[in-house]
């Protein structure tokens, strides 16, 4: 065999491998057609950024509006109410965008729920400071809202898997909870009127002397404390408080009352739905607790069989 023939066979051996059963050449794994097809398919598959999905972008904008409403909350009730209301209304738009663009994600669902819970909690915190005597009621509502939704989502994801939505309720477990989440109209009305009730209470803290009397009422038969120049006996309200975010500045804003008719109407209409929403929260909390307990029993039985 010539040297040229030996070199040709050596080159051929490098390109091919003899099969174990001696039936002919076998391509190496790195050069198999299936691997080549899978790699080209991966290159051709479009890369998606979940964080830039349309419903999630709406969710980010909701957060911006909520933060802006918190900024105006102590002294500007009209501006705050407008920003807060728009943020809440966009809650329905992001769900529509998720279905329209087929961009429903677990991240989007959690972002939506966390935004709802945080904005409502912030408003209730303000109401607690506006009406200290009722603070324990608002604190209880915050605790119930957070506990109910957290346990519900945790139970849904842990028992149903990561692809399970917290809005998919088994009708056999609880009929009322199923109706609440199954109908988008019922869910929207309940959530919207629940927020409207708290917005009405917020406006009443600026408009109702009965619920929130001002501390800046003039004292009867008060005498000037000083007549010296530069030390006025009755300073202007704008000069009473150096910080615009102090408790006194809040009372000064309340001294300029707004009409309470519209806030009373909002609060009265939304009150029954708000109470129903709290009943649903209690049922949701109990149902999630039972679901988690059933999962614990199943795990314990499975461990005993091992």
From TrEMBL:
<comment type="similarity">
    <text>Belongs to the CDP-alcohol phosphatidyltransferase class-I family.</text>
</comment>
<dbReference type="GO" id="GO:0006661">
    <property type="term" value="P:phosphatidylinositol biosynthetic process"/>
</dbReference>
<feature type="transmembrane region" description="Helical">
    <location>
        <begin position="185"/>
        <end position="204"/>
    </location>
</feature>
<keyword id="KW-0808">Transferase</keyword>
<keyword id="KW-0812">Transmembrane</keyword>
<keyword id="KW-0472">Membrane</keyword>
<dbReference type="GO" id="GO:0016020">
    <property type="term" value="C:membrane"/>
</dbReference>
<dbReference type="Pfam" id="PF01066">
    <property type="entry name" value="CDP-OH_P_transf"/>
</dbReference>
<dbReference type="GO" id="GO:0005794">
    <property type="term" value="C:Golgi apparatus"/>
</dbReference>
<dbReference type="InterPro" id="IPR043130">
    <property type="entry name" value="CDP-OH_PTrfase_TM_dom"/>
</dbReference>
<keyword id="KW-0443">Lipid metabolism</keyword>
<feature type="transmembrane region" description="Helical">
    <location>
        <begin position="50"/>
        <end position="73"/>
    </location>
</feature>
<protein>
    <recommendedName>
        <fullName>CDP-diacylglycerol--inositol 3-phosphatidyltransferase</fullName>
    </recommendedName>
</protein>
<dbReference type="InterPro" id="IPR000462">
    <property type="entry name" value="CDP-OH_P_trans"/>
</dbReference>
<feature type="region of interest" description="Disordered">
    <location>
        <begin position="1"/>
        <end position="42"/>
    </location>
</feature>
<keyword id="KW-1133">Transmembrane helix</keyword>
<keyword id="KW-1208">Phospholipid metabolism</keyword>
<dbReference type="GO" id="GO:0003881">
    <property type="term" value="F:CDP-diacylglycerol-inositol 3-phosphatidyltransferase activity"/>
</dbReference>
<dbReference type="InterPro" id="IPR048254">
    <property type="entry name" value="CDP_ALCOHOL_P_TRANSF_CS"/>
</dbReference>
């Amino acid at each position: 065999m010539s040297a040229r023939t030996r070199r040709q066979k050596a080159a051929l051996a490098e390109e091919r491998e003899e099969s174990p059963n001696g039936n002919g050449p076998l391509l190496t794994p790195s050069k198999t057609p299936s691997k080549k097809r899978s790699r080209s398919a991966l290159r051709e598959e479009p890369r998606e950024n979940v964080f830039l999905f349309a419903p999630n972008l709406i969710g980010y904008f909701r957060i911006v509006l909520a933060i802006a409403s918190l900024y105006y909350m102590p002294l500007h009730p009209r501006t705050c109410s407008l920003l807060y209301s728009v943020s809440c209304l966009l809650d329905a738009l992001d769900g529509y965008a998720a279905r329209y663009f087929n961009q429903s994600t677990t991240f989007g669902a959690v972002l939506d729920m966390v935004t709802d819970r945080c904005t409502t909690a912030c408003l209730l915190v303000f109401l607690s400071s506006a009406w200290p005597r009722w603070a324990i009621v608002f604190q209880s509502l915050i605790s119930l809202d957070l506990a109910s939704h957290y346990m519900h989502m945790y139970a849904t994801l842990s028992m149903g898997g990561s692809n399970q939505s917290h809005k998919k309720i088994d009708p056999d477990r609880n009929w009322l909870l199923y109706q609440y989440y199954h109908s988008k109209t019922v869910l929207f009305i309940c959530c919207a009127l629940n927020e409207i009730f708290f917005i009405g209470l917020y406006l009443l803290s600026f408009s109702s002397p009965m619920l929130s009397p001002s501390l800046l009422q003039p004292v009867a038969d008060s005498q000037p404390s000083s007549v010296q120049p530069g030390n006025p006996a009755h300073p202007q309200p704008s000069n009473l408080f150096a910080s615009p975010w102090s408790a006194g500045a809040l009372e000064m804003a309340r001294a300029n009352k707004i009409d309470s008719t519209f806030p009373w109407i909002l609060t009265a209409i939304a009150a029954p739905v708000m109470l129903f929403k709290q009943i649903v929260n209690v049922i949701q909390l109990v149902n999630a607790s039972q679901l988690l307990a059933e999962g614990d029993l199943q795990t314990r039985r499975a461990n005993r069989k091992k």
